[in-house]
Design a protein that fits this description.
The complex is a heterodimer of chains A (260) and B (460). Chain A is mainly alpha-helical and 260 residues long. Chain A contains 8 helices and 3 strands. In chain A, helix 3 packs antiparallel against helix 4. Chain A is rod-shaped. With 460 residues, chain B is α+β, with helices and mostly antiparallel strands. Chain B folds into 2 domains: 130 residues, 3-Layer(aba) Sandwich (Rossmann fold), CATH 3.40.50; 263 residues, 6 Propeller (Neuraminidase), CATH 2.120.10.30. In chain B, 16% of the residues lie in helices and 37% in strands. The longest helix of chain B has 24 residues. Chain B is globular. Classes of the chains: A mainly alpha (260), B alpha+beta (460). Strand 3 of chain A pairs parallel with strand 1 of chain B, so a sheet runs across the interface.
Chain lengths: 260, 460
């Protein structure tokens, strides 16, 4: 009885064993085929032919250097451009969200023409032939830029439209000092050690009161954006605008760099 | 863009269609021009991230503009006062006078920009001017120039005239310094004309005295011949509340600067101590009329008494949030050693701020963000340290120690510009009034005679 059972089981195993053997052989054949043929088509992706150079290293006097780092940063730059370009296409569906991606892509100079349309009505026009249109004057080298000491990202105002920045540099620096005094860095999430620059815009009225505080470009860190906006909220006044300044207000773009 | 008269005449003479076209052209041109000018809307682009440097300021000695024999004395008073005010402001990096050019200007026309805006002085700002006495009157002309901006250097130009006395000249210097601080300090009024009220024992009794913010011009106010403590000047500067012992015990007293005498104020019975003015003119104080010392609030006239705390632990030394007037910080011993608490001005939402030690004398900063207090963090026999002045952020309860290893320090009080703190210290061997910047630097002794305690800075 027992023998019969055993023999019958042998008979039942033969067919699955054959399947198993056949499939294993087929898989092994596929691996060989893949390694020999298919992988050869994309060989540049792995080591980029460096293997041959490495073999010849004893023969060649100069070791081939890695690619120029400048090229790699270029690659990264184009990648980020691609990312930022994809955002406006998504947000075209919501017309209200369009202004923000515009400001994201612009670096420093572009936003003013957009604002100028709204400010045109507010400000009566006096035509000065010697005034430089916004963005065409190049970076203004105010008297205070000297004190920046060449520190990267330090104080400097680039491309001020009228001559406010150059004529009242002392006021600009007072604004900068006051905002810095009121920026409490401990409000930023302590886990953040480094963040992108956050841009704020606001207006200063004649009496020095800041208004219309807006986060123009977020840093991506909500607590940092908040701390920057709060710095402005704490300020009652920057002091009245210079008495001989004719405008009714001054617009400020202010950036915050955060590093711990 | 430019239409010559010839063009316009031609346009009028020709047919009306052309005229319309020209008018459209003109209108479009004007529109474009207005757009172009709107580009000239002034934008400031700046930022922060590396901290800010103080303004580098040079204050050259004013020159004599007349040949009056009294000029040198007045000039010395003026120059010393101006220099001290700017030095005390805490926002300037004053350039030492030894770096100045030999020829200092007394008029704008005398400025040699390159001598100032490059090393050794290498200054950004220059304050200069002249002073002249004639026929009992003194005239001071003062300027503040941005010497690195040669095209439009003038920031400030002022002229003052007053009687030719030392006090008047000192006042002019204070005013001119305040103008400079106001311009360069972001719209915060300077404190050069503020006063400090304090308790002095130099007459043998503890009386209330007043002095200028720099310690000059000390004068006695009360002559009660008893013990007067805790002077607190009202927000408008017209009245002074303090606590004094009289026949009935400790009571809140009131001195009027309009009448220059004591004025009547209600007596409450029990022990009434440490009054404090709110920005709206209400007074919070500690009274034990119901048994235990608790915080009460009354109107500036003494009416409408309301009790805010109700517990056995002594509650004393209330101080209002000077910005909002909606919160009160006070000292309570309800858990043993005195600690700092805050509550709303109606007595709700009591919160403890200090976690240990012996904490007294809270004072609220003008911007409402900070408390200064006197704190002995480790209290008990053999413990190190003494009463030191601390700064505490109300929202986060983070604190910073401002005085170190300098005897007992107590009764800190903020200046109205929020940049200075005046306090009482025993570091010189006796209790005297000292002042420092809000970060604990630039410590200066203001009083020297007798024993002087419990300073209170005026509101403006």
């Amino acid at each position: 009885m027992h023998d019969i059972d055993i023999y019958s089981e042998h008979g039942q195993l033969s067919r699955p064993l054959a399947w198993s053997l056949g499939l294993h052989l087929a898989f092994a054949g596929f691996v060989v085929f893949y390694a020999v043929f298919i992988n050869s088509f994309r060989g540049t992706g792995w080591g980029s032919g460096g293997g041959g150079d490495a073999m010849g290293a004893t023969l060649v006097s100069a070791v081939p250097l890695p690619a120029n780092p400048a090229e790699t940063t270029n690659v990264l730059a184009t990648e980020s451009k691609g990312l930022s370009k994809s955002q406006p296409t998504v947000q075209e569906k919501e017309p209200e969200a369009i202004p923000i991606p515009d400001k994201n892509t612009k670096t420093k100079i572009k936003p003013a023409p957009a604002k100028s349309e709204t400010q045109r009505k507010a400000e009566p026009e006096t035509i000065d032939s010697n005034q430089i249109p916004y963005g065409e004057g190049g970076p203004v080298s105010g008297p205070y830029t000297m004190s920046a000491g060449g520190a990267k990202g330090g104080f400097g105002f680039t491309g001020s439209g009228g001559d406010f920045g150059s004529q009242y540099a002392w006021y600009v620096q007072a604004v900068q000092r006051k905002v810095t005094e009121n920026w409490l860095k401990y409000e930023v999430d302590p886990h953040i050690t480094d963040a992108k620059r956050v841009y704020l815009t606001f207006d200063i009225a004649r009496d020095g009161h800041p208004s219309n505080v807006q986060i123009e470009q977020s840093s991506g860190v909500p607590s940092l954006d908040q701390s920057a906006a709060r710095a402005l909220q704490r300020i009652d006044t920057f002091g009245p605008l210079p008495s001989d300044y004719s405008g009714s207000k001054v617009s400020v773009e202010f950036w915050f760099d955060y590093k711990r | 863009m430019v239409l010559t008269p010839m063009d316009t005449r031609e346009c009028k003479l020709s047919n009306s269609a052309r005229s319309v076209r020209y008018q459209t052209f003109i209108a479009l041109t004007l529109l474009l021009l207005s757009t172009a000018t709107s580009f000239a809307q002034d934008w400031i682009r700046t930022g922060t991230g590396l901290g800010v440097e103080r303004v580098r300021l040079a204050a050259s000695d004013f020159k004599s503009s007349t040949s009056d024999p009294g000029n040198p004395a007045l000039l010395k008073t003026f120059n010393d006062t101006l220099w001290n005010d700017l030095d005390n402001a805490g926002i300037f990096d004053l350039v030492s006078k030894s770096f100045y050019p030999l020829q200092v200007p007394g008029q704008p026309s005398e400025i040699n920009f390159s001598a100032w805006n490059s090393p050794p002085p290498n200054t950004s700002m220059l304050a200069f001017g002249n002073l002249g006495a004639a026929a009992g009157k003194v005239t001071v002309q003062g300027w503040l120039y941005d010497v690195k901006n040669e095209k439009s250097p003038q920031v400030l130009g002022k002229q003052y005239t007053d009687t030719a006395t030392s006090d008047a000249v000192r006042l002019i210097a204070h005013r001119f310094a305040d103008e400079i601080i106001f311009r360069l300090g972001g719209g915060v009024q300077g404190i050069a004309e503020t006063k400090i009220y304090f308790v002095s024992e130099r007459t043998g009794h503890k009386e209330i005295w007043v002095m200028d913010y720099d310690g000059a011009n000390q004068q006695q106010i009360t002559r009660l011949g008893s013990i007067s403590l805790s002077p607190r000047i009202s927000p408008d500067g017209s009245r002074l509340a303090f606590s004094s012992i009289s026949r009935g015990g400790w009571e809140i007293m009131m001195y009027s600067f309009d009448l220059n005498r004591m004025v009547a104020f209600p007596r409450f019975g029990g022990m009434n101590l440490s009054p404090s003015w709110s920005p709206e003119g209400k007074i919070a104080f500690s009274s034990s009329r119901n048994g235990y010392p608790n915080i009460f609030v009354i109107d500036g006239s003494g009416g409408n008494s309301r009790r805010l705390t109700n517990d056995q632990g002594p509650d004393v030394s209330p101080t209002w949030n000077r910005k909002t007037g909606s919160q009160i910080a006070f000292v309570s011993g309800r858990t043993g050693l005195p600690q700092i608490y805050t509550m709303e001005s109606d007595g709700t939402n009591v919160q403890r701020l200090t976690d240990q030690g012996y904490a007294v004398s809270p004072n609220w900063s003008p911007n409402g963000q900070f408390l200064t207090l006197s704190w002995m963090r480790k209290y008990g026999p053999g413990e190190p340290g003494s009463n030191d002045i601390y700064l505490m952020d109300i929202a986060s309860k983070q604190w910073v120690q401002l005085t170190h290893d300098a005897g007992r320090n107590d009764f800190p009080c903020w200046s109205p510009d929020g940049r200075h703190i005046v306090f009482q210290s025993h570091r010189s061997g006796s209790d005297q009034i000292w002042s420092m910047l809000g970060d604990g630097t630039n410590v200066k002794q203001l009083t020297f005679k007798g024993s002087n305690t419990q300073p209170n800075w005026s509101w403006k």
